């Protein structure tokens, strides 16, 4: 089982361009997607993934916004500072970049990684839970290895990502997480155990 | 090999807020699409949507309410009321696997609060998994739960996971399905920016036109649907609705915004589901498609149909429910499985409403105007998601 866990502070540069074959895609990336791309590249270290590799990814609750909510908020207020539907349509929506949708849709990390690595196999995007992610992996197709990933944006803007390449047998031997464990916590714990 | 059954359901949908009302809406060919009425759209550039109605009346909520959470809460309650088998299971044998859409965000409440000045938006955001945690607590579901957020295939993937778990585990029961509502000002306009909305200029109810030559885009819908799934040998008092016998799942890895133009990987998912069901493509009697009403989806889906069914792809009857209920995004696959059950129960393929003029690029047998009755044993359900994820489920009419 290979595991990798990485974190970047809000101001830290994520060197995603160095690891991307489809460099034009970078304009669509949130910092979480960029960090995921780099972390996965480090995990694989040049190894090629078979196209049918099953791939499951878990998104955590978003605590930090990187989609210009404050710009939108400013544009939508009327003269007394309240929400104005007219301003929302005339100024607010116009202030939103169409690329924002790609940064906030939950399945985008999985989709961009699938695109970059040409993954066409079994897949799922789960919300936050480590147990949900593992259930998905343990009941998926038997073909080893499976690719698992997770990401989280914290309130202070730092981003944390983790990936593992493992067989179902290896995953089944690990302690099954409690229902309230966030997926990224599981990757962090796996990586710490590996480094000990 | 264990048989996996659906033995109860509950629903909140544009066609109604019970399974009986939904079925009646299917039979009466009710149009769920209209102009948005739950919030003011006076200045919106578009306002078509399929909002949830109960007994013909709009389910009205304020901006703080997460509509999709309300819908799944009520759908699960209806399901549990009809499932003595769920109630007889101990808590640790009950599971909950649902597909969902994006977190609810009360933009109006946020902007009208003092928190907006300080950028404290978090408490106006309701994560999609919150209601699932609450439902698990409320109904004593302690065997495990998950929330799939794979966009338009989220709920069909949740059903697929439930099917896979039941193939490997006996003595359990799973509530599965999906819930979503993008019908709030922020989500609606955010989706509008993607440029996929119907440009139809006529009556709202005709705005979503799956497979029609004059289709011009999708219309958003909303709702929540829940199914109770269990192994046939574990069934006690519940009445079987249908059998789920195959599931397939794939990714296009082609383009982030468009489906694979040859439908290659949607076909791969379809064939995988048919194989898992122990069937050949010729055993499939009809197909309930993803059928969004967008230009590219339908062409790709027709190509996938050709790859799955070879020459028969022009003959096999197909249907899309989205003309009636819109695109429910995170709930669409599961909601459309209720349409699959309608087909199996009534032994007919419904007419795809608003399908009038065939598109020469889509030589499919789309049932038009009136339902097509004939013996139906196996239905293939296809779904595709923005970003390139695909799913297929095979459902079978229940026989002892």
Overview of the structural elements:
The complex is a heterodimer of chains A (196) and B (400). Chain A contains 8 helices and 5 strands, in the order E-H-E-H-H-H-H-E-H-E-E-H-H. With 196 residues, chain A is an alpha/beta fold. Chain A has a single domain (2-65, 98-195), classed as Thiolase/Chalcone synthase (Peroxisomal Thiolase, Chain A, domain 1). In chain A, strands 1-5-4-2-3 form a 5-stranded mixed sheet, sandwiched between helices. In chain A, helix 1 crosses helix 5 (108-117), helix 2 runs antiparallel to helix 3 and helix 6 (130-138) packs across helix 8. The radius of gyration of chain A is 18 Å and the shape is elongated. Chain B has 400 residues and is of the alpha/beta class. Chain B folds into 2 domains: 4-234, Thiolase/Chalcone synthase (Peroxisomal Thiolase, Chain A, domain 1), CATH 3.40.47; 242-397, Peroxisomal Thiolase, Chain A, domain 1. Chain B has 12 helices and 19 strands. Chain B has helices at 19-27, 67-81, 84-88, 107-111, 115-118, 130-138, 154-168, 185-192, 264-276, 295-309, 322-325, 332-346, and strands at residues 4-12, 33-35, 48-50, 53-54, 57-58, 94-100, 104-105, 125-126, 145-148, 173-181, 222-231, 242-251, 286-288, 317-319, 348-349, 365-366, 372-373, 378-384, 389-397. In chain B, the strands form 5 sheets. Chain B has an 11-stranded mixed sheet, sandwiched between helices. Chain B has a two-stranded antiparallel sheet with strand order 2-3. In chain B, strand 13, helix 10 and strand 14 (317-319) form a beta-alpha-beta unit. In chain B, helix 7 (154-168) crosses helix 12 and helix 9 (264-276) packs across helix 10. The chains are: A alpha/beta (196), B alpha/beta (400). Chains A and B meet through helix 2, helix 3, helix 4, helix 5 and strand 3 of A and helix 4, strand 9, helix 7, helix 8 and strand 12 of B.
């Amino acid at each position: 089982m290979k595991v990798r866990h990485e974190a970047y502070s809000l101001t830290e540069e994520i060197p995603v361009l160095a690891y991307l074959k489809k460099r034009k895609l970078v304009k669509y990336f949130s910092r979480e997607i960029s960090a995921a791309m780099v972390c996965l590249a480090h995990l694989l270290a040049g190894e090629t993934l078979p196209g049918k590799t099953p791939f499951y990814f878990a998104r955590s609750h978003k605590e930090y916004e990187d989609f210009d909510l404050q710009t939108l908020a400013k544009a939508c207020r009327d003269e007394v500072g309240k929400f104005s539907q007219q301003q929302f349509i005339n100024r607010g929506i116009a202030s939103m970049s169409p690329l924002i949708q790609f940064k906030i849709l939950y399945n985008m990390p999985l989709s961009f990684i699938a695109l970059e690595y040409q993954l066409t196999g079994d897949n799922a995007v789960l919300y936050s839970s480590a147990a949900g992610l593992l259930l998905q992996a343990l009941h998926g197709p038997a073909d080893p290895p499976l690719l698992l990933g997770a990401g989280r944006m914290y309130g202070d803007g730092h981003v944390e990502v983790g990936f593992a390449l493992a067989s179902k047998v290896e995953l089944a031997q690990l302690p099954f997480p409690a229902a309230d464990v966030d997926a990224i916590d599981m990757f962090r714990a796996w990586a710490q155990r590996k480094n000990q | 090999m264990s048989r996996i059954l659906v033995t109860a359901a509950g629903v909140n949908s544009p066609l109604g807020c019970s399974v009986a009302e939904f079925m009646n809406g299917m039979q009466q060919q009710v149009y769920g699409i209209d102009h948005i009425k739950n919030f003011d759209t006076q200045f919106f550039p578009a306002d078509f949507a399929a909002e949830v109605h109960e007994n013909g009346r709009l389910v009205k909520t304020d901006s703080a309410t997460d509509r999709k959470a309300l819908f799944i809460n009520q759908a699960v309650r209806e399901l549990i009321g009809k499932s003595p088998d769920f109630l007889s299971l101990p808590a640790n044998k009950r599971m909950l696997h649902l597909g969902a859409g994006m977190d609810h965000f009360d933009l109006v409440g946020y902007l009208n609060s003092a928190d907006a000045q300080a950028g404290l938006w978090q408490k106006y955001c309701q994560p999609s998994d919150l209601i699932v945690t609450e439902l698990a607590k409320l109904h004593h579901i302690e065997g495990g739960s998950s929330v799939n957020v794979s966009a338009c295939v989220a709920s069909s993937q949740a059903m697929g996971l439930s099917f896979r778990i039941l193939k490997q585990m006996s003595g359990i029961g799973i509530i599965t399905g999906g819930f979503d509502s993008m019908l709030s000002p922020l989500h609606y306009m955010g989706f509008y920016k993607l440029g996929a909305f119907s440009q139809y200029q006529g009556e709202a109810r005709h705005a979503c036109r799956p497979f029609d030559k004059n289709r011009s885009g999708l219309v958003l819908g909303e709702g929540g649907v829940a199914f109770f799934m269990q192994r046939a040998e574990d069934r006690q008092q519940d009445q079987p609705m249908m059998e789920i016998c195959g599931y397939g799942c794939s990714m296009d890895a082609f383009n982030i915004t468009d489906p694979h133009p040859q439908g290659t990987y949607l076909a791969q998912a379809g064939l995988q589901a048919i194989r898992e069901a122990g069937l050949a493509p010729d055993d499939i009697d009809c197909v309930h498609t993803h059928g969004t009403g967008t230009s590219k989806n339908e062409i790709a889906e027709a190509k996938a149909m050709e790859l799955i069914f070879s020459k028969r792809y022009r003959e096999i009857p197909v249907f899309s429910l989205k003309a009636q209920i819109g695109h429910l995004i995170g709930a669409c696959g599961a909601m459309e499985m209720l349409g699959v059950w309608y087909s199996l129960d009534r032994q007919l393929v419904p007419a795809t409403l608003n399908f009038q003029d065939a598109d020469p690029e889509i030589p499919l047998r789309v049932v038009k105007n009136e339902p097509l009755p004939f013996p139906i044993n196996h239905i293939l359900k296809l779904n595709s998601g923005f970003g390139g994820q695909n799913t297929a489920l095979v459902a079978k009419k229940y026989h002892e």
